[in-house]
Amino acid sequence: MELPPSHHAATRAAALAACYLSYRRGSPGRCLALQAVRSGRRQDIDGIGHKYYLELVLEDVVDKDSTVNCTAEVLHHLGNKNIAPDVQFTIEGELKNTDEADNMFYNRIKSLDKELVAENIPDNHGNISPEMEPIRLLAWVASGYVIWQNSTENTKFQLAQIKHVKQVKRNDEYLEFDYMILLHEMVSQEIIPWQMTVLWHPQHGVQVTRESRQLKHESE
After folding, report:
1. pLDDT tens per residue, range 9-30
2. N or C: which end of the chain has fewer CB within 10 A?
3. pTM of the model
4. CA–CA separation, 128 vs 114, rounded Å?
5. Which residue, 198, 171, 196, is CA-closest to 110?
6. Cα angle at 159 between 154 and 164, to 5 degrees?
7. Is the sign of the CA dihedral 139, 140, 142, 147 positive or negative?
8. What would the 3-class secondary structure string for the chain be?
């Protein structure tokens, strides 16, 4: 069934695909977000679920003039909310190289005398200091995993704010951060605190080793 690009189900599936793609291809130097849905189609597969075929335009969160076209397929399984949607994607063209920015951030964090601690990114006025921007982008990328794992056909999540982040000391090459984030669920308009532990290395990408929804008072 063809869906208009503005159809709610199409935009929810497209937002999920963009989050998943950002998780798979993002870094502290590059985050991708949904700019537009060019087309959408839904297939109802008996006994399995609903599959969405999408054509998307993605933009770089840092450089919004940098865009790429993408095709994606999102399968929402019937009934079982414990199974993450299946997402497949193909990017048309090349993403910009972020090796320099990624390595600069990695070396800066590795050279700190004590572990990084920060809160309220962005602040209540929407401001982000330049040195905290890679920390926000890393949270954006990692939250893509959380959103993918916890989405249903009737949800649409977006990272709203980092309430608190603390670097965890390690003896290996990875950087580890413990985040408390706020996710905005746009259908219900609920703001949900979520904890996630994130590992990152420039050569190995982002890993979310632990994530859990929190009670509201735990994020205060």
Report:
1. 999 999 999 999 999 999 999 9
2. C
3. 0.94
4. 21
5. 171
6. 135
7. positive
8. CEECCCCHHHHHHHHHHHHHHHHHHCECCECEEEEEEEEEEEEEECCCEEEEEEEEEEEECCCCCCEEEEEEEEEEECCCCCCCCEEEEEEECCCCCCHHHHHHHHHHHHCCCCCCEEEEECCCCCCCCHHHHHHHHHHHHHHHHHHHHHCCCCCCEEEEEEEEEEEECCCCCCEEEEEEEEEEECCCCEEEEEEEEEEEECCCEEEEEEEEECCHHHHC
How many residues belong to the chain? 220
Residue with tokens 């994130």: 198
The span from the CA of 48 to the CA of 185, in Å, is 25
Residue with tokens 């890679």: 134
Token pair of 85, please? 């949607």
Please name the residues in contact with 114: beta carbons below 8 A apart, sequence gap of 6 or more.
none
Task: At 80, list the tokens.
Answer: 């079982």
| Tokens encoding 158 | 């977006």
